[in-house]
């Protein structure tokens, strides 16, 4: 037995001599001697022989008799084990303690028959700590600097030189003890399991890869994940086939992988190849083995809870593969364990553009889908039939990672490729969102172009655009044909424009109708017998001849001097001494106008004349112009009424504006007010208007008058339409809006049945000019909304909800005025009568 004190003294002496010989720095003397020696290169290790303290330390070392006897016994049996290289398998480590070797290992730690030493490492199954030892050695061999070892078969581990073992990172005392014990077991064994069939000589591993196989990244440690991620960055993918064939990369791609990365990828490739051979031999079921490096893409989950646990584990590992910036982009865009931010907000944090963040997010999400590999419907079977709340409870750990439940729903919809679609929690795009784009560009658009347009139009990201397009497809608004998107439900004007967008020289009406009908792009078929009298000049098309129409995209308006045209027309009227003229006469009389094609001139005057004080009317086949605005205002209101009567369905303010030459919302609101004052148009909801005959066709006006009058009489003070709405809907079981009741009350007030002040109605004269006037008189800006409401309802009958909104808006207007921001006069004028959409 050696003396511990003497060994410590010899060890200290050896450290001093190593420092003197330049083999060790003075700062390293506190480290363990065996580790310090293991770090030496070959030349430094050989230099130890020249140090007296080294031989003194070896002389103090004693090996227990039982181990010496075991070593002798094993030596005598070498002839029975031709498969083990006796020249490279020393009986014990000269630096190990005799206590590190268990002479009688437990029978429960190893199988009854040991795997043959020539067994491929990936096929070795020893059980317990020995399997852990083999895995640890393989991983350390691929990640340790300054050493190159390759464990292909078990005998490579058994024959590993002790100096190489000591240089492996992460292989501590317990692993070295297990390694020594494993060697003893193999020296004592007399027979082994047969060597598994080596399919590598028959077939290449690449030929064994199946389409439903994917790399199970949960079985890779951090170092392996890092090199796999690097491979993906260099060549754009890192699936099983890519890893198996990465050494055949082209020279320019191979330069992106360093020697150490390639060495570690070789280790991963060896593990993959070994598992493929086991699968091919029928000894490994990659559908049922969650701890294997290869797993199935179609693997189902027995419950949503199991799927949730899998997802949170995979997302955590996925985030570990990203750099810090990419992690934050992922978290902020999904609202995952952090607040959700817009692309612009994240861009400001990193001082880059919104578009750059969008590009990075797109790459991250593409990597996420490739990483998760959850394309199969079987994976989501357990979750697709569950309610939103049940799924949230089943996946509680995952759902709690998101700032809002809607973000959790959106995430599931994305990674499930739409199989779990939470349509109730996500906003749908307007059904007409693509109509104007088709009208401008044609009847068949490439899908990436449409997705980019949707992303810009909706202000979302690629996920939102893809979901929006899928929604439009499900609503039969578009057809998806290969890589193209086609419209299916355009209005006739948009459908005609879409057809014309593909014909630079224009088309006669009949050809437009036939093209549109044959392609099925309009919500209603075009008549091929009558002319195209319903078509009008618009920003998208214009009359280019008798019965011929042309798209405006083919006109170079930069060559048209609008200012010169309208200056010439004003000069013409100054000398004509009349209010109305024909455009053709003006062109014939003015050289400045004769240089323009008549139909281009007509279009410019018709579409832009109002802004220059020149008004156009092309009715009765006569293109008339005038300086009198009333000349054109009447025709505009007629267009609105005609459209409402033709469509039967209500129109929004935006849709009314599109009927006007100016496309002006301000003009649309003005015309709507005038038409409502004349009881020709009725506001039936916040943003919807229709003709009075359409609005009241199912209403008993006499009965409605008496019912509303009973409400006014019961309250005996000015009444806001919100009260009429609540009481009459409850009484009659209807669901009309307060705007509809306001229109009715205004109509009856105009007939002289009761009093009206803007949106207030009563049987007796009203002392307030409007609801805003009442609030201004009865409320105080410094008081709370509750206190102001209590004051207001003493004098005005109004619902609490409507009162709170009105008081809040009144306070906001006061604040804007106090800060010098002007309130638009038109909004004041329309107070309580027309909602501004």
Core attributes:
837 residues; mainly alpha; 7 domains; three-stranded antiparallel beta sheet; elongated; disordered C terminus
Beta-strand percentage range? 5-15%
Major sheet summary line: 3 strands, antiparallel
Calculate Rg over CA atoms: 42 Å
Strand order of the largest sheet: 3-5-4
Supply the helix-strand structural class: mainly alpha
Q: What's the overall geometry? A: elongated
Give the N-terminus to C-terminus distance in angstroms. 96 Å
In total, the number of domains comes to 7
What percent of the residues sit in helical stretches (DSSP H or I)? Answer: 40-55%
The unreliable regions are 63-109, 825-837
Mean pLDDT: 77
The tally of beta strands, per DSSP, is 15
Q: Work out the helix count.
A: 41
InterPro entries: RNA_pol_sigma70 (IPR000943), RNA_pol_sigma70_r4 (IPR007630), RNA_pol_sigma_r3/r4-like (IPR013324), WH-like_DNA-bd_sf (IPR036388)
Pfam families: Sigma70_r4
Protein name: RNA polymerase sigma-70 region 4 domain-containing protein
GO molecular function, one term: DNA-binding transcription factor activity
């Amino acid at each position: 037995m050696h003396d511990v004190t003497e060994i410590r003294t010899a060890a200290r002496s050896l450290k001093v001599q190593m420092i003197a010989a330049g083999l060790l720095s003075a700062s390293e003397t506190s480290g363990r001697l065996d580790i310090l020696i293991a770090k030496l290169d070959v030349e430094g290790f050989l230099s130890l022989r020249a140090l007296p303290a080294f031989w003194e330390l070896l002389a103090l070392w004693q090996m227990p008799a039982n181990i010496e006897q075991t070593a002798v016994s094993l030596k005598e049996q070498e002839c029975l084990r031709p498969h083990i290289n006796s020249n490279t398998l020393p009986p014990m480590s000269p630096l190990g303690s005799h206590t590190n070797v268990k002479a009688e290992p437990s029978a429960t730690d190893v199988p009854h028959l040991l795997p043959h030493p020539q067994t491929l490492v990936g096929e070795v199954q020893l059980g317990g700590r020995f399997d852990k030892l083999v895995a640890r050695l393989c991983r350390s061999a691929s990640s340790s600097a300054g050493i190159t070892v390759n464990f292909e078969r078990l005998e490579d581990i058994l024959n590993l030189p002790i100096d190489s073992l000591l240089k492996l990172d992460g292989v501590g005392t317990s692993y070295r003890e297990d390694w020594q014990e494993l060697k003893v077991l193999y020296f004592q064994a007399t027979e082994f399991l047969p060597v598994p069939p080596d399919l590598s000589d028959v077939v290449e591993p690449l030929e064994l890869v199946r389409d439903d196989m994917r790399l199970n990244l949960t079985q890779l440690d951090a170092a392996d994940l890092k090199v796999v991620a690097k491979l993906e960055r260099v060549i754009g993918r890192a699936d099983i086939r890519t890893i198996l064939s990465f050494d055949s990369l082209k020279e320019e791609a191979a330069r992106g992988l360093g020697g150490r990365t390639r060495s570690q990828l070789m280790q991963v490739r060896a593990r993959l190849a070994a598992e493929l051979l086991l699968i091919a031999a029928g000894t490994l079921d990659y559908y049922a083995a969650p701890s294997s490096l290869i797993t199935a893409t179609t693997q189902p989950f027995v419950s949503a809870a199991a799927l949730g646990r899998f997802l949170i584990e995979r997302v955590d590992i996925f985030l570990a593969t990203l750099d810090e910036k990419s992690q934050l982009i992922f978290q902020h865009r999904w609202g995952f364990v952090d607040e959700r931010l817009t692309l612009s907000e994240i861009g400001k944090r990193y001082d880059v553009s919104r578009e750059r963040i969008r590009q990075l997010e797109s790459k991250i999400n593409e990597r996420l889908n490739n990483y998760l590999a959850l394309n199969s419907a079987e994976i989501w079977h357990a979750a697709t039939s569950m309610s939103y709340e049940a799924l949230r409870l089943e996946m509680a750990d995952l759902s709690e990672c998101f700032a809002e439940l809607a973000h959790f729903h959106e995430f599931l919809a994305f990674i499930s490729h739409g199989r779990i679609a939470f349509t109730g929690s996500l906003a749908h795009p307007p059904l007409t969102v693509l109509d104007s784009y088709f009208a401008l560009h044609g009847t068949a658009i490439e899908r990436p172009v449409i997705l980019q347009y949707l992303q810009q139009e909706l202000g979302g990201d690629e996920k939102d655009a893809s979901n929006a397009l899928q929604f439009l497809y499900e609503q039969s608004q578009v057809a998806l044909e290969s890589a193209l998107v086609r419209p299916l439900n355009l209005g006739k004007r948009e459908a005609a424009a879409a057809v014309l967008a593909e014909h630079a020289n224009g088309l006669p009406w009949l050809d437009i109708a036939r093209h549109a009908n044959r392609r099925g792009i309009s919500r209603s078929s075009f008549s091929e017998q009558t002319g195209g009298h319903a078509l009008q000049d618009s920003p998208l098309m214009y009359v280019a001849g008798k019965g011929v129409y042309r798209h405006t995209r083919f006109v170079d308006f930069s060559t048209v001097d609008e200012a010169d045209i309208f200056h010439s027309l004003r000069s013409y009227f100054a000398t004509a001494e009349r209010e109305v003229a024909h455009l053709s006469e003006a062109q014939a009389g003015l050289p400045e106008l004769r240089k323009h094609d008549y139909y281009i001139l007509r279009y410019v005057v018709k579409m832009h004349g109002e802004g220059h004080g020149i008004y156009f009317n092309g009715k009765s086949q006569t293109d008339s112009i005038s300086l009198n605005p009333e000349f054109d205002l009447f025709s505009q209101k007629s267009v609105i009424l005609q459209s409402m009567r033709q469509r039967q369905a209500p129109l929004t303010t935006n849709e009314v504006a599109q009927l006007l030459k100016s496309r002006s919302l301000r003009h649309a609101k003005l015309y709507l007010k005038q038409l409502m004052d004349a009881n020709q148009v009725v506001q039936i909801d916040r943003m919807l208007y229709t003709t009075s005959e359409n609005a009241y066709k199912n209403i008993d006006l006499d009965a409605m008058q008496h019912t509303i009058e009973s409400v006014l009489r019961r309250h005996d003070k000015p009444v806001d339409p919100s009260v009429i709405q609540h009481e009459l809907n409850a009484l009659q079981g209807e669901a009309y809006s307060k705007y509809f009741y306001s229109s009715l009350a205004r109509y009856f007030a105009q007939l002289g049945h009761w009093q009206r002040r803007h949106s207030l109605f009563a049987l007796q004269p009203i002392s307030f000019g409007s609801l805003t006037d009442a609030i201004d008189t009865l409320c105080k800006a410094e008081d709370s909304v509750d206190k102001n409401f209590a004051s207001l309802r003493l004098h005005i009958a109004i619902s609490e909800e409507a009162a709170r909104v009105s008081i809040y808006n009144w306070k906001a207007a006061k604040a804007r005025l106090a800060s010098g921001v002007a309130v638009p006069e038109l909004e004041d004028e329309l107070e309580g009568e027309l909602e501004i959409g």
